[in-house]
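QA checklist item 7 of 12: single-chain prediction sanity check.
[x] sequence parsed
[x] length recorded as 188
[x] structure emitted
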Amino acid sequence: MSVLMRRAKVHDLDAIMRLERATFVNDAWPEEAMRREIESPHGYYLVAVDDEEEDPERRLLGYAGLLAPADGGQGDIQTIAVAPFARGIGLGRGLMHALITQARRRHVAELFLEVRADNPIARALYASLGFVEIGVRRGYYQPDGVDAISMRLTVPAAVTRPAESGVAAGRDDPAAAARRAAGERGGA
């Protein structure tokens, strides 16, 4: 399996809708709504595909979507789904990291989502990413009346650190190693 994550296009819609209907049997989005989301300038939808897979039914591994107008301050994780055969390899986490990164680029300070109360795996993933529960929407998911747990993430600033190993830290520089061995100091 060779996973490629890229921006979703309208030509991905058939595969996305197959996974949407298989994942969200009772409350799948209508195809036209998904199309509008993918085409929206305020949306950012990703697909994860196995670029070595020849079977079109197994090529799409997952998708995820963000709605966040640039400089709007707030955004929403609209949806995320991972094919059953691709679960457990960190794909959901990878898709979420990509959406959070895009939210940061759009200057989003707060990111929201709803998750089914009966989905402990997704709830644990979101909590591990820093989302906190902020409320319950009773009977939100229809027709089965499952509650939605509303969650919020304060989007962290990008973190950068200087390199701590390799040439940038002077550890793999042969001349520096020779000077250290000879007891010399580097410099002019």
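[x] summary fact logged: The chain has a mean pLDDT of 88.
[ ] second reviewer sign-off
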